[in-house]
Design goal:
Acyl_CoA_acyltransferase, acyltransferase activity, transferring groups other than amino-acyl groups, 7 strands, alpha+beta, Aminopeptidase, GNAT_dom, N-acetyltransferase domain-containing protein, single chain
Amino acid sequence: MPSSEQITYTVATTVDRDAVRDALISFYYPEEPLTTAHRSGAEVTPDDLDNSLAFIDQGTVTLAWLNKTTDGEPAATVVGIAIGGPSDAALNVPIRTSKFADIVAFLDWVAQSSVAMGTRPCYNMHCLAVHPAYRGRSIGRQLVEQQMLVAKRVCPKLEAFTADATARKSEHLLKRLGLCEIGRLRFDQYRDERGDRVFDQLPDGVVVTLEKAL
């Protein structure tokens, strides 16, 4: 059965909504520490997912497609995804669950903790994921570079590109691409209004904020 494969990169449009949703559910959220480490459980909430999908309308979701032809029949599957947008427009849907409220509050805390060292507002990339079967092909690097191009095109007045890395591999990749660390916080440093830990399923969880001038 002869076949060929090629990876291509695009900006997602409304016709890609189902493919974006499938990618987020299948290989982003299951490995996203803010989702999996929350005290309520590891499942993504509907409002969190809807908020990610809302960035499609902003033109700031970039996709890596596996274009495969088998016996002359073409097929395309999303194997990588990155999402970003202006740092002052990160919330695009109503908050409907306590878990998503906790995540939004945590990210606000992270942003405020790094603001003294960083440029605000900025273009912030808050999602980067590659399907496990296709890692090691520089897809993540290409997605970050695509996000930087999107930032310059969609938000030309913003002077900086930032990213919050919750995985060590992502942190190392971003630093290789020239981003500099401006903040590092442990999940267990964050407490809710009662003083309780919110992300208690990952004792050594860390979020690293990095920045690069556009």
